Amino acid sequence: MSGFLGPNGAGKTTTMSIITGYIEPSQGKVEINGYNVSKKPRKAKREIGYMPETTPLYNELTPKEFIKYMAELKGVPRKMRKQEVERVLKAVNIEDVKNKLIRNLSRGYKQRVSLAGALVGNPKVLILDEPTVGLDPKQVTQIRDLIKSLGKNHTVLLSSHILSEVSQICKKVIIINKGKLVAIDTPKNLEAKTEKENVLLITVEDPENKIEDVVKSISNIKEIKLIKELPDGTKQYSISSNDNSDMRKEIFSVFAKNEITIFELKKAEMSLEDAFLNLIDNQKEEPEKTKAEIKKEKKELKEKRKKEKEDKKIEKQNKKTEKNKEKTKNKKKGGDK
C-alpha cells in the first residue's frame, strides 16, 4: 500500500488521471499489470478500481442497484453479477443499508458505496483519492480499517492531505512536487532521513525561570526554545545540541542541583509531516522555461512521435514482406515436389 503525497498543484490528480487512462500522457507510458493503458485501455482498465475525491453517486438508486449498475459497466458476466454484488456489499460492510436510497445515507456510508464501485470486478489496483475527506473521527477510523484490509489483496495507491493517515496505513510513501518525483520510501525512513538535529523535548517546573541561564553551563547545547506554557504552570522547551551526544544525564544532574523539576524528558521525533515539509521546502527551484524552449520541446516531441510512427509502419511493412517471401518460398517447394 502506497501513499501519494504532494502540495496543491503538485500534479497528483493529473497523475492519477493518466494512470486510469482518463488523460493521455504527453510522454512515457503507464502499464497496469502488464497492460499498456494507451495501447490496451480496456484490458488495463479492468485491472483498475478508481475512487475519485467526489464520486458522482446516483442518489435515486440503492447501494445494491448502484453496485449492480457498476458491474454492468465493468463488463462483469451476467451469470456472475449477483455473486459479485453480494461479494462487494460484504467487503465494504454495507449489507445493512443495501436497499436504502443513497440520498438517505450518512456521509460515511456514501464513502463506502463509492469504494464499493471501485471494488466491482475485483481489480488488482485500487486508486483512492482522499477517501476519508469530510468524515467524522469514527467514520475515518472505520474507512481506514477497511482500506487496510483491502491492502492485503490489492495494490492500493492512496492520495491524502492527512499525513498522519498515510503514516498509519501505508508501507511506502511517494512524494511529488511541481510534477516531479521528490521521494519514494517508507514513512519511517523519510522521517529518519530528514532529521537533522539532536533535539530533546523537556517539560519542567521552574518558578524562578532559571532554566535558560542553567543550560549555559551544559556542554554542547546549541539552543533552547520555549514551546508552550501548560495550564498546570509547567513549561515545555526544546533543547538542541551541536552533535549527537546524549545530553540527558547531564541535564538531570544540573537541573536537580538548581532545583528545576523535570516532569518529562524525551527525544523529539520527526513526523511524516515534518519530513514532507522539509522535502518540499528544500526542492530546488528551476527557472521557468522560455516560450522558445517550450516551442522547441513541443517540436522535438512531435518529431519523435512522427519517427516512432514511421518506424512502426516500416516494421509492419518488413514483416509483411517477410511473410510474403515465406509464402512464395513454400509455394516453390510445393511446385518442385
Form type: flat
Count of alpha and pi helical runs: 12
Instruction: Output mean pLDDT.
Output: 84
Q: Strand order of the main beta sheet, please?
A: 4-5-6-1-7-8
N-to-C SSE string, H for helix and E for strand:
EHEEHEHHHEHEHEEHEHEEHEHH
CATH class of the largest domain: Alpha Beta
Give the helix level as a range of percent: 40-55%
| Assigned CATH architecture of the largest domain | 3-Layer(aba) Sandwich
Tell me the total number of β-strands. 12
Name of the CATH superfamily of the largest domain: P-loop containing nucleotide triphosphate hydrolases
Tags for this entry?
12 helices, Rossmann fold, 6-stranded mixed sheet, 2 domains, 19% strand, 12 strands, alpha/beta, Alpha-Beta Plaits, 337 residues
Task: Offer a concise description of the structure.
The chain is of the alpha/beta class. The protein has helices at 12-19, 41-46, 63-73, 78-91, 107-119, 137-150, 163-169, 187-193, 211-214, 248-257, 272-281, 291-336, and strands spanning 2-5, 31-32, 35-36, 48-51, 125-129, 155-159, 172-177, 180-185, 199-205, 221-229, 235-241, 261-267. It folds into 2 domains: 2-192, Rossmann fold (3-Layer(aba) Sandwich); 196-268, ACT domain (Alpha-Beta Plaits, 2-Layer Sandwich), CATH 3.30.70.
